[in-house]
Structure formats: structure tokens, C-alpha cells
TrEMBL record, chains A, B:
GO terms for molecular function: hydrolase activity. The lineage of its organism: Bacteria, Pseudomonadati, Bacteroidota, Cytophagia, Cytophagales. This is NUDIX hydrolase. It holds the Pfam family WHD_NrtR. InterPro entries: NUDIX_hydrolase-like_dom_sf (IPR015797), NUDIX_hydrolase_dom (IPR000086), WH-like_DNA-bd_sf (IPR036388), WH_DNA-bd_sf (IPR036390), WHD_NrtR (IPR054105). The keyword Cytoplasm does not apply. It comes from Dyadobacter luteus. Signal peptide: none annotated. Keywords: Hydrolase.
């Protein structure tokens, strides 16, 4: 039996989290796949307890999923169309898995609660992917990172939510100096540039980019990275503020 | 008796609208004052019907208040702290007006519905102030425009909502060319510059500003404005897209 603890939460309001990570020169998104038959991928999400703020709810959901506290988090938009198709998602799940299977996993009152229309608040998070150990919740068969260019088809409007989160990330990238949240504690200037190029989906001139970033005076230069070839080794940097 | 029609709406979810207008070189915000004793100013707001999207709800609320359709509208943030103090607002209202007065205006079941915690979606709208005839709803004593620098103290977190809307408007002003929504159909270049200066709260160089705006190729130049002095009369422009 999967417990939704419906009575503790604000009804018809959910939170969906787009968790961005960066590795192998790709922007990645974390997506759990449900245990039910039918290939249901989704965004990590949850509900808002009556006694917590919406930001606290988003942090709790992210911590449950990634094991990390103090994640960089932005609320970016609310998804409130009437045809977000929560009901048709549940109809399809029931069709593919059988009513008995669904009845075995959810109590009837909670099922009534969760099949209503939901308005969902979208948050995106930026994480150092090397620090995350994705956590499966009780309804998950798997939780994996997917290239943003190659996401599986997700339930409801979750693919649209990812697309909107990416637009918001692109708009915020310069304004708020948030890209560094996708990097480990120390990094090379090349790694910073790769993130900008992949997120903005364009090539940047190396010299201009490096000058712009260094002129911001937010990085501390450390020793050279050990590569075996002292001459060509790039410097390591660290966020200094 | 004030009807909230609670049963038609999503519970614990509201919409608050910051309606911006521009006149006498001031950015203005529309604020209704409630009929109850205690000087309760607020933002125009409402709830989301089960059968309408959140954007439709915001448009409906704005149309009810201003009489205008096709208003420029941006969803900018959700306000979801647990201490938004809906209950303490109702406590204070009851204290100042008496329980009998409140009981006379609200039915008990709806009062129970509306005194719960609400999560509120903030929208801001930009209007041509000359086209708006503010509409009083049944709980309003007045609906007036106030200078944003000189707003009355509002209920709950409504003053914070205005402050957040202004920050969002400032960020979007260049990116999205939205300032023209605050102007009547034809305007002088000086009027455009005034809006930018007031919203961004800084003085702009006239020649640079005019060049930047004209280079955008979004305006059509019309005849000169009639001022009685043909020589110094400024050109009128119109949004051309």
C-alpha cells in the first residue's frame, strides 16, 4: 500500500521538481520511473503539508530524492491548465495495470484525493551531480539521469515543465551566476564554459568568456590541475563568495 | 451576504493581481479597500474555478475589476509561506467589526473555507490607465489607484507581493518590450522614456534611449503631436507589430 498521507496536505496543489545536473558535457534531468506497467516516467514531485511553506516542501522533496540539503532552488512557474490530464493519467494506469492492482496499492479515499485536478508549482534545482545518490521512493522502479535532449516521454505535462525550466535557466544564467551550482567544488575555466555553451546551446569565444567570468571577481584561483603535463595543465578555480 | 461560491473553486488556492498603470509620471497600483471597519486595503484577487485554468482565472478577475479584456498579464511568483496570516487577518476583521457583523456578511461554511491557509499565485498586469474604469466588487468600499511609492498598508503579505511584482517588471522591461502596454495607442518618445525611468528608478540619456528604442523597429512614426507650436512639437508613435 502506497501512503499519500493526503489529509496532511493542501488538496489539488502539487510541486514538480526539475533537477538539473551536468556530466559528460550534457545537461541532465533526474527522472523516476513508476513501478506500474506502462512506462510511466515522471518528475520528482510531491505535495505541500499544511504546516510547511511551498519552498520548504520543495526542499523536502529534493532532499528525499537526492540526499542533499542546501540545494540551489528556483521557483519558476505554475502549471494550471485544466487539461493537465491527471485523470487521464490515472485512467491509463488503471487500464494497463488492472483495477485490482491499483486497489491493492492505494486506499480508496486517497485515490479519490489524488485523481482530482492538480495545480502544480514548478521548481528547478541545480546540483553537483557527483554528490547525488538518487533515491527511489516507494512507487519508483528506477531513478535515473537522462540527457535533456533525450528525455523519455513523461506523464501529464512533465515534458513541458522541463522545457519551461530550461528556458528559465537560460534566462537566469548570466543574471544570477547560478551555473557554478552545477560544478564540483573546484573546476577549470573550460568546465564553466562548457556549462554555459550547453545550457545556452551556442558556442562562446574562449577569450571573451574567460575575461567576462574572471572580471566578475567571484572566483578564487587555486593550484594547477594535475594532468601529468605541467605546461598545459589548466588552473583550478573555486567559488570565492 | 457576500457569496464566495466556495464549492466551485479549488480550495486553499488564490490569485492576487498587481495591476500597474502609469499617469502623471508615476507608476500606480490599483487597490480596493474593503467595506469593513479597520482600513483594509488589498490587491484585487480571487479564486480558481474547478473548470478554468489559472490564467483564465486571472483574466476573469482582471476583467471584472477593470472592464478590459486582452490585458497584458504575467504570472510572476507564488506566495506560499505558512505565516501569510490569513487567519490573523480574519481575526482582526472580526475583532474590529464584531462577530454579528461578520456572520451577517458571510455564511458559516464559506467563512470556514476562506479562513484556511491560502497559497496565492501572483500575476501582474499592465494597463493603459486611461481605459480603465475601476469596478467595485460587493466587499469593496472603494477602488483607487495609488502611487507605488505611497501605497496604503495592505492586508496579509500584499505589500510584499507588490514589491516582488515591481522587481519582476524591472527585469522584464527590456527583455520583453512590455512597457508599451502602459501607454495609450499613440504616444511620444518622451512618454516611453518616462516609463522606463520611473520603473527602473534611474535617469536615462535621451539620445541613447531614443536610438535604442527606434533601432528595435517596433514603432511606427505618425504625425506630430498638436501642441500649438509646430516647431517644437514631438512626433507621435504607435506600436507597429
Amino acid at each position: 500500500m502506497i501512503s499519500l498521507r493526503a489529509s496532511d496536505h493542501i488538496p489539488q496543489l502539487s510541486i514538480d521538481c526539475v533537477i538539473f545536473g551536468f556530466s559528460q558535457n550534457q545537461l541532465k534531468v533526474l527522472s523516476p520511473k513508476l513501478i506500474f506497467k506502462g512506462d510511466f516516467w515522471s518528475l520528482p514531485g510531491g505535495f505541500v503539508r499544511q504546516d510547511e511553506s511551498i519552498d520548504q516542501a520543495a526542499r523536502r522533496i529534493l532532499e528525499e530524492r537526492t540526499g542533499i540539503k542546501d540545494i540551489y532552488l528556483e521557483q519558476f512557474r505554475v502549471f494550471g491548465e485544466t487539461d493537465r490530464s491527471n485523470l487521464s493519467f490515472w485512467d491509463r494506469l488503471t487500464e494497463l495495470n488492472g483495477e485490482a492492482f491499483v486497489a491493492e496499492h492505494f486506499n480508496r479515499k486517497e485515490l479519490e484525493w489524488i485523481t482530482k485536478r492538480f495545480v502544480s508549482i514548478g521548481y528547478y534545482a541545480l546540483v553537483d551531480i557527483t554528490k547525488v545518490i538518487p533515491v527511489k521512493m516507494e512507487a519508483d522502479a528506477s531513478v535515473e539521469w537522462y540527457d535533456i535532449q533525450n528525455l523519455p516521454p513523461m506523464i501529464m505535462d512533465h515534458n513541458q515543465i522541463v522545457a519551461a525550466a530550461l528556458v528559465s535557466l537560460q534566462q537566469n544564467l548570466d543574471q544570477k551566476l547560478i551555473a557554478f551550482n552545477l560544478l564540483p567544488e573546484t573546476f577549470t575555466m573550460n568546465e564553466v564554459q562548457q556549462i554555459y555553451e550547453v545550457v545556452l546551446n551556442k558556442t562562446l569565444l574562449r577569450s571573451n568568456f574567460q575575461k567576462k567570468i574572471l572580471d566578475l571577481n567571484v572566483l578564487e584561483r587555486l593550484e594547477k590541475k594535475f594532468t601529468g603535463k605541467a605546461n598545459k595543465a589548466p588552473y583550478l578555480y573555486r567559488w570565492a563568495q
